[in-house]
Amino acid sequence: MTKVLVTGGAGYVGSHTVKALGNNGYTVLVYDNLSHGHRDAVLHGNLVVGDLADTALLDRAVQEFKPDAVMHFAAFIEVGESVKEPVKYYQNNVASTINLLHVLTTHRVKNFIFSSSAAVYGNPGKVPIPEWESIKPINPYGHSKAFIEKVLHDMSTISEFRSISLRYFNAAGADPAGQIGERHEPESHLIPLILKAAKGERENVKIYGSDYPTPDGTCIRDYIHVEDLAEVHVLSLKYLLDGGDSDIFNCGYGHGSSVREVVDTARKVTGINFSAQETERRTGDPPILVADSVRLKQHLMWKPMYDDLEYIIKTAWGWEKLQKKNKYVSS
């Protein structure tokens, strides 16, 4: 059976992908330090609790498991935090990934799937954004992802090592069965923040900027259901195992929803008229980020199943209602 090592597999996108791998018959080993992941989110395979900086433990795990491929999710993802603490992000997202790649090279593991980000584009000149758009990240988080993409490219040119870099847009939603979902501490993503306001755990949800050059003045983002994103990883794995070349793909639906549309849809789904407060723009927020995902559909034969904002929020709300209600947090 094909063996897949999944770093960061106890986190949000990682855990949904682990579930998809298990459902498709793959043997999985999750390697996660649980700094942001959750032990109970690992629904398939075994879990090694460890940090990628622990080269000895990582080497032993790879040597004993003998993976055919690796999916690398382990990274810090908060853009604002990366600006305040760049060294923390370069240490974890770059240096620790280099540790991983070194160990994989030593053990001749040649198939690698990397969780990249639309943050590598910075403020794009073209929307929807094609993969050949210039790489101009504007924060340490984006730089960390762009740097690893370059490392992977260089590795692919001199060896049999092959990789797929998946540039996520806005992952959202939850497992429709309610087994796993989005749990960040602290939470910073729009949809779970909205749903926490609906639960009464926040005073309101903030709309950062209402004067953007968009139809309703608020930012537009391409929200992709986490289950569809997990399926992209499974298809990428099959592609590499079938001899596919290294490549880069955008992960989005090719159209977006504004912040105001997300708020209105959440009110419809929850039946709760929670408070939304307009406030000033945040520095560095582009008006529109939407993926051109034509290549993903053509090369990997990806057929999204959940391209519907209402369904995305419905699954997220189903998950959120299962979580213990936390103490009221003023926003």
Oligomer: single chain
Mean pLDDT: 95
What is the structural class?
A: alpha/beta
**Physical arrangement of strands within the biggest beta sheet:** 3-2-1-4-5-6-11
Q: Which radius of gyration do the C-alpha atoms yield?
A: 19 Å
The CATH class name of the largest domain reads: Alpha Beta
Helical region count?
Answer: 10
The amount of beta strand, in percent, is: 15-25%
Give the CATH H-level superfamily of the largest domain.
NAD(P)-binding Rossmann-like Domain
End-to-end distance, in Å?
49 Å
What's the count of strands?
Answer: 14
Helix amount:
25-40%
Q: How would you characterize this protein structure?
A:
The protein has helices at 12-23, 55-65, 79-84, 86-106, 140-158, 190-199, 226-241, 259-270, 294-300, 309-322, and strands spanning 3-7, 27-32, 46-49, 69-72, 111-117, 162-168, 170-172, 205-208, 220-221, 223-225, 247-251, 257-258, 276-279, 288-289. The longest helix is centred in the first third of the chain and has 21 residues, at 86-106. Helix content is 39%, strand content 18%. The strands form four sheets. The chain has a seven-stranded parallel sheet, with helices on both faces. A three-stranded mixed sheet has the order 12-9-14. With 331 residues, it is an alpha/beta fold. Helix 6 (190-199) packs parallel to helix 8.
Summarize the structure.
With 331 residues, the protein is α/β, with parallel strands linked by helices. It has helices at residues 12-23, 55-65, 79-84, 86-106, 140-158, 190-199, 226-241, 259-270, 294-300, 309-322, and strands at residues 3-7, 27-32, 46-49, 69-72, 111-117, 162-168, 170-172, 205-208, 220-221, 223-225, 247-251, 257-258, 276-279, 288-289. The chain has two domains: 3-172 and 224-251, NAD(P)-binding Rossmann-like Domain (Rossmann fold, 3-Layer(aba) Sandwich); 190-221 and 254-322, UDP-galactose 4-epimerase, domain 1.
